[in-house]
Design goal:
This protein is α/β, with parallel strands linked by helices. Helices cover about 35% and strands about 15% of the residues. Strands 3-2-1-4-5-10-9-6-7-8 form a ten-stranded mixed sheet. Helix 2 runs antiparallel to helix 3.
């Protein structure tokens, strides 16, 4: 994948704003009732959604001389019903100027022409399509948890089937923990293949390198169920990729939620639904619908 001079994030309107009331009208009463509701309320400000703070912090990395990040809005609204969304973008002072409104059609078709590095959506079908196309994508989970507006941008990742391929996860599911540990020890010096979020992590690392380590406005964390002795291959893989992870937490199967809260994640990416649902009680979370856990 080519190296670009800016990071491009595409986000659906339901991930950016709280649109659940309107979505429930759509589900229960149909498209006409939904359209009427949005038009009647188009001057009312939409409240922030699960990924709002993430987007705000991403856009704050820009300055007048250098646009490091661009956020694209992708919405299944029509342009007509989407007017409320653009009004809310303006009132929240979010510098988002590019958008695609599809009137209910799939969003994934616009990921490639917008040259997207990351796609976030509340719709699993669109996420799966984007992942199949080779893009980093994740389904935002509903969550009452919100990250803090202040401080650096903090992004946390699971390892297997997210940053890395699911090759080790397959061994674990077929042979259990002992087989997994034995395979990882024997392959400790062999870098893991990349997963769907390898290039996105690399893009974050390129942005980080523009700052000194102690002044970086971006912090990353690997939060994995792996423990010793399966830690070594992970460390050596990241070293081989020349990618820095600021914090690495090897939990040996312990629940991730409290650790993600302590890290202060603005978002956490994991492939397994149980981990995501547990994490969403503490921080904004998104499921990467990839790998053996999602077959």
């Amino acid at each position: 994948m080519k190296e670009k001079n800016k990071l491009v994030v595409a986000i659906s309107s339901r991930a950016l704003f709280d649109l659940e009331e309107g979505h429930n009208i759509f589900i229960n009463d149909g498209i006409e009732a939904y359209c009427q509701y949005q038009i009647e309320h188009e001057d009312e400000l939409l409240e922030p959604g699960v990924a709002f703070t993430l987007v705000k912090k991403l856009l704050s990395l820009n300055n007048s001389a250098n646009e490091k990040v661009e956020v694209i809005l992708l919405s299944k609204n029509s342009a007509d019903t989407g007017l409320r969304i653009f009004n809310s973008i303006e009132k929240h002072n979010l510098p988002i100027v590019r958008a695609a409104f599809t009137s209910g059609d799939s969003l994934y078709r616009y990921i490639e022409p917008f040259d997207t590095d990351l796609f976030l959506s509340a719709e699993p079908t669109d996420v799966r399509e984007a992942l199949d196309m080779g893009y980093a994508a994740a389904a935002i989970l509903p969550s009452a948890s919100r990250s803090h507006d202040d401080g650096p941008l903090r992004i946390a990742f699971d390892g297997d089937a997210v940053i890395f391929s699911d090759e080790a996860e397959k061994i674990y599911r077929e042979g259990g923990l002992a087989a997994f540990d034995a395979a990882e020890q024997s392959s400790a010096n062999k870098p893991l293949p990349g997963g769907p979020f390898k290039e996105f992590l690399a893009s974050l690392h390129r942005l980080q390198k523009e700052y000194s380590i102690d002044q970086s406005p971006i912090r990353t964390a690997l939060v994995t169920a792996r423990g010793a002795p399966a830690h070594e291959r992970v460390i050596r893989t990241l070293r081989a990729w020349d990618i820095r992870i600021d914090e690495a937490i090897f939990l040996g199967g312990k629940s991730k939620g409290e650790f993600l809260k302590a890290f202060g994640a603005d978002i956490f990416f994991d492939d397994q639904s149980g981990h995501c649902e547990s994490a969403a009680e503490h921080v904004p979370s998104a499921q990467v619908l990839h790998g053996v856990a999602n077959q």
